[in-house]
Specification:
Structural class: alpha/beta
Strand content: 25-35%
Order of helices and strands: HHEEEEHHEEEHEEHEEHEH
Shape: elongated
Distance between the termini: 37 Å
Helix content: 25-40%
Radius of gyration: 23 Å
């Protein structure tokens, strides 16, 4: 879906360029690479993208919202998103002689299952936390006991204290589980993106601008999401707002979740996205021209 963001932003640049004499200030367009790995925004900041910038606005297409709607809410918008990799090392051998081995498949499976208890038994249900195992790779053949298993996953949260607590808990469980099976486990952990918090004033301007484009009745509210967004690298430095553009249309088959194999977008909403980008920039500058 990120190509849709670039396409709409480019369209907005064309629109604003045609009316640049009416703009009360300067608009800078960020065509950011690397959002998928959570590093693009930080690299742009390091290279000076925010120089001279007073505020930022971003938008993400959403198959989970109806086409023709726009979402902009104040406060916490998206969660911190981390990455971890656990490498389990056992002892390989013949599938017919398991007693001579330390089965990394069994150990890795036990680690995955034990990590499920973190959310349910170690952290408060009133503090949102997601621990997801996205992949586990081990073994080469049906009758060979694997010496190694690699587990990769992601963690999402809003509580800043979890930045230290969760990695420590994951590593403790992985190492202790592996030890129980006579294996070893090593963990790599990366904090990819921060919590995205929408500024109240910017959100108010965004909601007003969105109402001009899709109608006030189609400016909708949603709960904070546990998805990650490195727009936070910008909005943690200058005030900003991250919005969502609805693209869910059952007749067009565009309601599949993001990252689903059948994910698609309703291209008819692109005109709303182009207009919304431009309208927000105009409205923000009009309100801050002094």
């Amino acid at each position: 879906g990120h190509d849709t963001h670039g396409a709409m932003l480019l369209g907005s640049a064309m629109v604003l360029n045609e009316m640049k004499d009416k703009i009360n200030g300067t608009v800078k367009f960020f065509f950011q690479p690397g959002e998928e790995v959570g590093k693009g925004a930080a690299a742009m900041v390091a290279e000076g993208a925010l120089e001279g910038v007073d505020s930022v606005m971003g938008m993400h297409i959403s198959s989970g919202l109806p086409s023709g709607t726009i979402n902009a809410d104040p406060g916490a918008k998206t969660a911190s998103a981390d990455y971890f990799k656990i490498t389990v090392t056992g002892k390989g051998g013949h599938g017919a002689e398991p007693e001579k081995t330390i089965d990394a498949v069994v150990v890795g499976s036990a680690v995955v299952m034990n990590l499920q208890s973190l959310v349910s038994r170690e952290f408060s249900p009133f503090d949102p936390l997601v621990v997801t195992i996205g992949s586990i790779h081990s073994g080469t053949r049906f009758n060979v006991i694997a010496p190694r298993a690699v587990i990769e996953g992601t963690v999402r949260y809003y509580n800043p204290e979890f930045k230290e607590k969760v990695p420590a808990a994951i590593e403790r469980i992985a190492k202790a589980t592996a030890e129980a099976y006579r294996a070893t486990a090593e963990m790599e952990y990366s904090n990819l993106v921060k919590i995205t918090i929408n500024d109240d004033t910017c959100t108010s301007i965004a909601r007003e601008a969105a109402g001009k484009i899709v109608g006030k009745e189609n400016v909708i509210e949603t709960p904070p999401a546990t998805g990650g967004e490195d727009f936070s690298e910008f909005s943690s430095i200058v005030p900003g707002v991250m919005c969502n553009l609805g693209s869910g249309n059952e007749e067009k088959g565009t309601t599949y979740p993001h990252h689903h194999g059948k994910f698609d977008v309703d291209e008819d909403v692109f005109v709303d996205g182009v207009a919304f980008y431009a309208q927000y920039a105009l409205d923000f500058l009009d309100k801050n021209k002094d």
